[in-house]
Amino acid sequence: MEKSARPRTALNECVKVVVRCRPLSQKEKNEGYEEVVKVWPERGAVQVYNPKGEDKLFTYDAAYDCTADTQTIYDEMVRPLVASVLDGFNGCVFAYGQTGTGKTHTMEGTPDDEGIIPRAFRHLWAHIENTASPDVTHLVSCSYVELYLEDVRDLLSKDCKKLTIRGQELNGFYIPEMTSVVCRSAADMVRAMRAGNRHRAAGRTDMNEHSSRSHAVFLVTVETAHRATKRIRVGKLNLVDLAGSERQRKTGASADRLREASRINQALSSLGNVISALAENSPHVPYRDSKLTRILQDSLGGNSKTIMIANIGPAAYNYDETITTLRYAHRAKAIKNKPVRNEDPKDAKLREYQAEIERLRALIEERRAADKRPKKAPRPKQPQTQQPDNSEEDTVSIEHEHILAESTIEQEKCKTEELEQLIKSLEDRLVQGGGGKDLLNNLNETQIILEQRNMEIAERKKREVEMQQKIDLEEETTAIVTNTFATLQQEVDHKTQRLKKCLSKYACLREEMVEQREAHDAERREHEALQAALLAALRRRLLVADGFVPEAGRAHVLRLRYNDDADAWQLPPARHSGVEPLTERPLASGARRPMCTLALGPAPARRRAENLLDLQPLPLPATARRYTPPPPRAPRPQVAVAVADTVKKEEVRRGGGARARPATAATAHTRLGTAATAGVR
Ligand SMILES: Nc1ncnc2c1ncn2[C@@H]1O[C@H](COP(=O)(O)OP(=O)(O)OP(=O)(O)O)[C@@H](O)[C@H]1O
């Protein structure tokens, strides 16, 4: 995402929305879930059976059922958009939907059914090779970034370095430091995509074996220079595979997965808010709320032609999520973008390269011209007779000059070769046709014609869908308008019918409202559960901080503020907060180890230094029972009394063990808080 020039004049163009429904998965079949989604491809409509009330019907630019392959979606919807990118427009295709509904399947695909991203690569290169001529030069580069836990990571750099989004809402956001790889073929681009995918965060959840845990954006930049017009067009194509929204109870997420899910849902909820604000023409669009919406700013309501692919699953089990996806997708249809052709932007790399090549060529010419200029004639040898003493010296100096001149020439040659090498490497990055024939080898003409035909068919199909939708709508309205009433009774009947229709619509809307409230409540409950989990984690950290951060530094830690622009925690100036600035590094409180408040309390002094939590040793549970005197009996014979006295004396001599031990046991049980205490006491 490089900084792009703002559009000057632009025609509004709505975001195109496509729905794709995947087949029931094996797991869903095994568990016996019903299908509740019916797709009407010829009408671009999706119908969802509502177990509680009336069915829901949504219409889109196109709708595909589980029998449709990615090739069809590409030809009918994406191909025209990629053609626009080649013409200098910005384009964006993004897949949206619940986890496990086929976003990655649609964007990246499988070895049997390639996804939209590799298809777009092949389409781009087929066009470039087809239009190759000495008058047209192309430069194609790509970048790949992911948004993982609100960090933007460069998937094409070795160590996946973290990147910063710069810019402002007004002029657009951009990522200045991301790696940009120059490509010379579709295979190069596929290689870059695979290299990036190896770094991408993925994991297993109960809903998807290979769930993407990050939002990924593959950016392709195509620069085209025409020699005749001396203009450069720059088209940018964003191919976005979003992570899926998920419910914790369904995915069974815990620990790290839960943390990822919370960030994914947070970013998607910001995206939903941006879509809603744009659809309602709200004066404020909250792009700043998340990094995802900043990255997608141009694609939603900006300078771009955009296609949203909403992926859904057919199972009844996912009814709520399917309806939510379809509602967002329906809302996105109202978003108006302002695409303009990017002509001669300041940051065009192609112009930079061309200027550099020109400069190097001029340098070589200069050097060659200098080489051809007549060299200073070597000094004529003085006749030996005139200066017999200097003759040997002169010969040495002439030879020396000769060697010097030769080495200079050699150096010059090396430099010229170096420059030529540099020009070659720069030219290698650019794709230029040498008459067109060589490059056309890769692509036979029939294939091009076939693709054009496919595009025409797709265009016709699209028009058919639009017409069908219009006919449906008009049929409904004309039935009402053209009705002439012969009698008053007829008019009453008709109006009653209309009233009934209105009432049923009203009931539908009410039902929708109730459903939305329920969905909202469910979401709130999930947020609350998540908040509780996060609070618990925070408390634990605070406790550790209490123990390890010295008193003097604590006030400064609390003053730290997160700066979105710098993407870092910063300490605001001390004068605003009234906290004394730290002049020296604070020391721990002097003990061998840091301590918590609890440890400063009644804990035994011997253990204070290591007492972060309450680490008082827990006494062992009692091992002896309390002595209960036997009930009084009738007096015994004298011998028995004597024996008993001896036993008693022996007990007293041992220190009254039976009485002393129960006391210890009572303390232990009191600390342990067990029910046994009552018995002991
Ligand atoms: N149209 C389809 N036809 C056949 N199988 C599909 C289709 N769409 C998705 N699948 C299968 O469904 C499973 C989940 O798909 P995928 O990983 O693309 O979902 P996802 O939406 O990207 O999920 P997540 O958001 O968790 O990354 C995969 O096994 C995939 O092969």
Automatic annotation (TrEMBL):
GO biological process, one term: mitotic spindle organization
Signal peptide: none
InterPro entries: Kinesin-like_fam, Kinesin_motor_CS, Kinesin_motor_dom, Kinesin_motor_dom_sf, P-loop_NTPase
Segments forming domain Kinesin motor: 14-335
Region described as Disordered: 368-396, 621-640, 645-681
Major localisation: cytoplasm
Coiled-coil region: 409-468, 506-533
Keywords of this entry: ATP-binding, Coiled coil, Cytoplasm, Cytoskeleton, Microtubule, Motor protein, Nucleotide-binding
Localization per Swiss-Prot or TrEMBL: Cytoplasm, Cytoskeleton
Pfam families in alphabetical order: Kinesin (PF00225)
UniProt biased composition (Low complexity): 659-671
UniProt GO MF annotations: ATP binding; microtubule binding; microtubule motor activity
CC annotations in GO: microtubule; microtubule associated complex
Keyword Coiled coil on entry: yes
Chain positions recorded as ATP binding sites: 97-104
Family: Belongs to the TRAFAC class myosin-kinesin ATPase superfamily. Kinesin family.
Protein name: Kinesin-like protein
Species: Parnassius mnemosyne (clouded apollo)
